[in-house]
C-alpha cells in the first residue's frame, strides 16, 4: 500500500513535466505556423482570382462561342483558334502580311542567326553550363530568331506587321526610350544645379495622370489642324500632317505618348539608385583625373545596374499590356496598324469571338513570359552577380 502511493507520487511530477513539454512544443509549432495561417486566406484569394481566369481562358481558347435561341453554345474546336492566327483567316491580323524578302531582310536574318549561334557556342564552352541553362537559352534563341524572321518578312514595302510585331515594336522601342530618358534625367538631377527640386516634382507629374487622359491629351496635341500645336506647325511651314492615316507615324505617336507616361517611373527608380551610389568612390575617381564618362561607366553604372535591370523588367511586364493609348489615339487604325495584342484580344471579345480573344490572350501570355523570364535570367541575375 505504501509502495503504490510512493510510485504514484513519483510518477505524477514526471507526467506533469511531460505534459508541459508537449504543450510547449505544440505552442511553439503554432507560433511558427501563425504567419502562414494569417497569410493563407489572402494567398488563396489571390490564387483564385488569378488561376480561375487562366483556366477559363484556356478552356475558351479551345472552343467556338456562338449565340443561339435561348442562350449560347460552346463547340470544341481544339487548336483551330491558334491555327487561324498563324495560317488562317486571322493571319494578317496577328502575324501580318508577308512579302518577298529582300537583300536587307536576308542580311538581317543572317546577322541575327550568326550572333545567336555565337552566343550559344560561347555558353556551351563555359564552365557554368547546365542542362536547364542550355534549354532556357535554346527557347530564348528560338523566340528571338522567330521574331527577327517575322519582322524581316512583314516590315517594309509590300508587307504589313500584325499585332504581334506591333506589340514588340511598342515594347522594345518604348522601354528603351523610357530607360534612356529616365536615366539621363535622373543623372542630371544628381548634379549640383539650381532648381533640381522643382524639376524632380515636374518629372514625376505624368505618372499621376491616367493612361486614357494621356491618350486624349496627345490626341489633341497631335492634331495639326486645330490642336494647341497647330500654330507652331504652321509657323514652321509644315502644314497639316495626317499622322493618323500613316501607319508608322501613328505607331510613333503611340510610343511617344507611352514614353511620356512611363519616363517618371524610370526616373524615380534610377534617381534613388544614383543617390545611393557611394560618393567616396566617385570623389576618389575624380581625384585620379577620370573623365565623367569613365566615372559613370566604371563606378556609377556597376552600382546601379541591378536596380536598373529590375526597373526594366517591371516595365517589360507592363509594356506588353499596352491598350489604352492605341485604343483612344487611333482606335487601332489606320486599319489595324496600331493594334497591340491586348487591343486585338479586346476587339475580338467585343465582337463575341471569345475563342479567338482567348487564343490571342494566351499567345500574349506565352510571348511575354518567355521574354520576361529570359530577361530576368540573362540580364537581371547577371547584374546582381548571380550565375545563370
Report on the structure:
- The protein folds into three domains: 59 residues; 60 residues; 225 residues, MetI-like fold (Orthogonal Bundle).
- The mean pLDDT is 85.
- The longest helix has 59 residues.
- By secondary structure, it is mainly alpha-helical.
- The protein is 73% helix and 4% strand.
- A hairpin with a 2-residue loop joins strand 1 and strand 2.
- The protein is globular and about 100 Å long.
- It has 15 helices and four strands.
- The strands form two sheets. Strands 1-2 form a two-stranded antiparallel sheet. Strands 3-4 form a two-stranded antiparallel ribbon.
- Helix 4 runs antiparallel to helix 5 and helix 11 packs antiparallel against helix 12.
Structure at a glance:
By secondary structure, the protein is mainly α.
Shape verdict: globular
Termini gap: 76 Å
- What would the CATH topology of the largest domain be? MetI-like fold
In the residues, how many domains can be counted? Answer: 3
Q: Which structural class do you get from the secondary structure elements?
A: mainly alpha
Please list the strands of the largest sheet in the order they lie side by side.
1-2
Average pLDDT works out at 85
- Rounded to an integer in angstroms, the radius of gyration calculated over CA atoms is 29 Å
- Give the CATH H-level superfamily of the largest domain: MetI-like
Largest sheet: 2 strands, antiparallel
E-strand count:
4
Distinct helical segment count: 15
Helix content: over 70%
Supply the key terms.
388 residues, two-stranded antiparallel ribbon, mainly alpha, globular, 3 domains
Amino acid at each position: 500500500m505504501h509502495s503504490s502511493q510512493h510510485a504514484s507520487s513519483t510518477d505524477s511530477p514526471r507526467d506533469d513535466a511531460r505534459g508541459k513539454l508537449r504543450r510547449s512544443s505544440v505552442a511553439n509549432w503554432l507560433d511558427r505556423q501563425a504567419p502562414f495561417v494569417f497569410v493563407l486566406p489572402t494567398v488563396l484569394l489571390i490564387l483564385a482570382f488569378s488561376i480561375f481566369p487562366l483556366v477559363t481562358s484556356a478552356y475558351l481558347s479551345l472552343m467556338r462561342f456562338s449565340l443561339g435561341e435561348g442562350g449560347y453554345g460552346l463547340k470544341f474546336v481544339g487548336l483551330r483558334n491558334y491555327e487561324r492566327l498563324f495560317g488562317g483567316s486571322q493571319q494578317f491580323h496577328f502575324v501580318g502580311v508577308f512579302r518577298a524578302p529582300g537583300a536587307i531582310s536576308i542580311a538581317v536574318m543572317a546577322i541575327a542567326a550568326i550572333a545567336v549561334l555565337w552566343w550559344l557556342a560561347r555558353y556551351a564552352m563555359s564552365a557554368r553550363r547546365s542542362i536547364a541553362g542550355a534549354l532556357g537559352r535554346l527557347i530564348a534563341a528560338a523566340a528571338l530568331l522567330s521574331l527577327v524572321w517575322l519582322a524581316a518578312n512583314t516590315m517594309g514595302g509590300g508587307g504589313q506587321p500584325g499585332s504581334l510585331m506591333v506589340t514588340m515594336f511598342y515594347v522594345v522601342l518604348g522601354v528603351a526610350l523610357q530607360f534612356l530618358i529616365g536615366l539621363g534625367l535622373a543623372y542630371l538631377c544628381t548634379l549640383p544645379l539650381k532648381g533640381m527640386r522643382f524639376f524632380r516634382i515636374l518629372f514625376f507629374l505624368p505618372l499621376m495622370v491616367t493612361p486614357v487622359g494621356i491618350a486624349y491629351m496627345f490626341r489633341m496635341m497631335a492634331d495639326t489642324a486645330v490642336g494647341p500645336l497647330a500654330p507652331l506647325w504652321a509657323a514652321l511651314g509644315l502644314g497639316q500632317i495626317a499622322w493618323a492615316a500613316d501607319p508608322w507615324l501613328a505607331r510613333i505617336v503611340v510610343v511617344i505618348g507611352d514614353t511620356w507616361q512611363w519616363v517618371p517611373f524610370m526616373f524615380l527608380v534610377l534617381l534613388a539608385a544614383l543617390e545611393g551610389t557611394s560618393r567616396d568612390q566617385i570623389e576618389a575617381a575624380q581625384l585620379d583625373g577620370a573623365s565623367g564618362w569613365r566615372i559613370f561607366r566604371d563606378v556609377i553604372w556597376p552600382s546601379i545596374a541591378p536596380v536598373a535591370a529590375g526597373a526594366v523588367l517591371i516595365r517589360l511586364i507592363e509594356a506588353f499590356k499596352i491598350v489604352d493609348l492605341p485604343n483612344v489615339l487611333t482606335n487601332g487604325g489606320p486599319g489595324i496598324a496600331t493594334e497591340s495584342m491586348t487591343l486585338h484580344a479586346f476587339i475580338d471579345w467585343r465582337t463575341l469571338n471569345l475563342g479567338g480573344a482567348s487564343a490571342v490572350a494566351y499567345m500574349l501570355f506565352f510571348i511575354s513570359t518567355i521574354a520576361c523570364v529570359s530577361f530576368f535570367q540573362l540580364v537581371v541575375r547577371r547584374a546582381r552577380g548571380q550565375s545563370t
